[in-house]
Specification:
The chain has helices at about 15-25, 65-70, 125-130, 145-155, 175-180, 195-210, 225-230, 240-250, 305-325, 330-335, 345-360, and strands at about 5-10, 50-55, 90-95, 135, 160-165, 185-190, 215-225, 260-270, 275-285, 290-300, 330. By secondary structure, the protein is α/β, with parallel strands linked by helices. Strand 9 and strand 10 form a beta hairpin.
């Protein structure tokens, strides 16, 4: 198979896990490939993915080979495959814009971004010259303007866009129309984890609903020690994130909860947790006879590999769309791998839709 040529906007923990995974699975056999939802999609395996362009704003990453940059501070995710060969692809200086929250300057360098003084590159030119087919947006939460800028760059360069962040692009009708009119695929918005806080919360909420349990109120609180959690200490950057996570849970209920009865969002930044995310979840409801039931759950998981397990499928489905000449939002893989897709479906239905898309039985 031909290589799937990708670009990444933001060489942080999520990009590190994804790129490590590309090489980790290279010598695996299908029966040994633990952690994949699909070994092969349309003939493409994980090792068919190749990074051809990368952008960041941190001086410890800009100018370095991608193979080095993914292990540079402030990245702190688990290193499960250190042996990533030199790629020959240097990290380029991207646009800072609103990608760095002001409060992050108050923290030690190994916890936060250190902005490079290198000149910002012409992103569209780099995308075109690199031959990138698909770009993944891994910018920090709250990077509204920067995300829109990079989405526009992809439109101009003719590059498919996978929006892993909670800025509404694929799920916004105006942006969706732009990508559809230019025949460019887009997947989004706000990537789920394989087994993370949102997918677990959705599953349990659907279970309550399916088993006739009245859910009265619920909360989901998350703590972590990576730059994403540090960045989210600025609550004004969380508007889209809270909408995305809350709607993901509300969408599986027969009747959405009143806003005062559902709270989903980050709680705090704990540096020594590094890329480990801890979720505290509580659900209060009533079973047969109006008798109360309370459920409490604690989930601890390495955050970035958890998202990479979904990203690696989103990339390959996006490539299938390119091969087939399909543009605009890809509804099936977006519903399966994203918290705020253009159209919400129960996860079991979304999975069936993805299988139909892979088999060519549905266009999107």
């Amino acid at each position: 198979m031909a290589k799937i040529k990708i670009a990444v906007f933001g060489v942080g923990n999520c990009a590190s896990s994804l790129i490590q995974g590309i090489y980790y699975y290279k010598d695996k056999k299908p029966e040994d490939a633990i952690g994949l939802m699909h070994w092969e999609i349309g003939g493409y395996t994980p090792s068919d993915i190749e990074v051809v362009a990368a952008f960041d704003i941190d001086r410890r990453k800009v100018g370095r080979d991608v193979a080095e940059a993914i292990f540079a501070p402030p990245n702190c995710t688990t290193i499960f495959h250190r042996d990533v060969p030199e790629t020959g692809v240097k990290v380029m200086m991207g646009q800072v814009m609103d990608g760095v929250a002001p409060h992050m300057k108050e923290y030690p360098e190994d916890e936060t971004f250190v902005v490079s003084d290198e000149p910002e590159v012409d992103v569209v030119k780099v995308l075109k010259e690199s031959g990138a087919e698909i770009a993944l947006n891994y910018l920090p939460v709250g990077s509204e303007n920067a995300t829109r800028y990079y989405a526009e760059c992809c439109l101009e360069a003719g590059v498919a866009f996978i929006n892993c962040m909670p800025v509404f692009i694929a799920s916004d009708s105006l942006w969706a129309t732009k990508f559809r009119e230019r025949g460019i695929p887009i997947v989004g918005d706000d990537i789920k984890a394989q087994i993370g806080a949102t997918i677990t919360h959705r599953t349990l909420a659907k279970l309550f609903s399916d088993r006739g349990v009245k859910l009265d109120r619920t909360y989901q609180m998350n703590t972590g020690g990576n730059t994403d959690f540090l960045n989210m200490l600025a609550r004004e950057r969380l508007k889209s994130k809270k909408i995305s996570k809350t709607e993901a849970v509300q969408s599986v209920l027969d009747k959405p909860l009143e806003p005062r009865n559902i709270h989903i969002g980050p709680s705090d930044y704990i540096p020594w947790l590094k890329d480990n995310k801890i979720c505290f979840l509580r659900m209060e409801g009533r079973i047969f006879g109006d008798v109360p039931i309370n459920l409490e759950l604690r989930l601890s998981v390495e955050d970035s590999p958890n998202s990479a397990g979904c990203a690696i499928d989103a990339i390959r489905c996006c490539k299938l769309a390119l091969d087939r000449g399909t543009g605009g939002p890809l509804l099936s893989i977006s519903a399966y791998t994203m918290k705020h897709p253009p159209e919400q479906y129960p996860d079991s239905v979304a999975r069936e839709m993805v299988e139909e898309f892979i088999e060519g039985k549905r266009e999107r």
